[in-house]
Amino acid sequence: MLSAAPQCAWSQPLAYPAPPQAQFRQQLDARLPLAAAFTDDSGRRARLGDFFGTQPVVLMLGYYHCPNLCSTLMDGVLETLAGVGLPPRAYRVLGVSIDPTESAASAARKKASYGALVAHAGGELHLLTGAAPQIQALARSAGFEYSYDAASRQYAHPAGFLVATPDGRISHYFMGVRFDPRDVRLALVDAAAGRIGSPVDRLLLMCSHYDPATGRYSAAAMTLVRAACLALLAALVLWMWRVRKSGRRRAEA
């Protein structure tokens, strides 16, 4: 976080909802524009699709000189990924700047500031910059709605990230700046179509379902447990009714 930068008015009250013009409109299964051209943090020109193909991708949109929210989000994502317990190179982390004035040098400086966290997380981190048309195409496909405030020279944008499949389809959304490593692990396993993770992960996926409204997995097994408890209670009530009815018949006889 750049302490000398002006405060980002949009990112101060993290507990408050984002402004109406700054939100995720979830578009699950939408395809990202893999042909769009960007520049990576080394200054190399690359297509978005160059970062897909073999691994699921954790994708974040923001901008590198954001004084608060973007750094908090990146910290939260990298700290969470360090706790998911997946092997190195099991996924890629991709950040894309929504500010077309930012350069590869800006991306490189930001990446260097995350060196220790990236090493701890064990994945690959790539930070991209690009021209406005490519940025806007990516944001539209991701359902990432943002706006620029000329007075503060800052962007209003939502907090969160998405997980995409290796072929560039949106698989899951996560909202906020702090995340449950278990949820993220399951999302990565899910997005990779079972190509990573252990049989236990697949069992958990069978017992869980993804709630796109909250960006979390909720245990469907709990629903089954509640249903079983209700069924047991109903069976107990029926048994007690039959016992009482049988007792009355014997008394009348």
From TrEMBL:
UniProt keyword annotations, A-Z: Copper, Membrane, Transmembrane, Transmembrane helix
Transmembrane portions of the chain: 217-241
Gene3D superfamilies linked: Glutaredoxin
Residue intervals of the Thioredoxin domain: 12-194
Domain of life: Bacteria
InterPro entries from the UniProt entry: SCO1/SenC, Thioredoxin-like_sf, Thioredoxin_domain
Any Pfam family the entry gives: SCO1-SenC
Family annotation (CDD domains): SCO
Family: Belongs to the SCO1/2 family.
UniProt protein name: Thioredoxin domain-containing protein
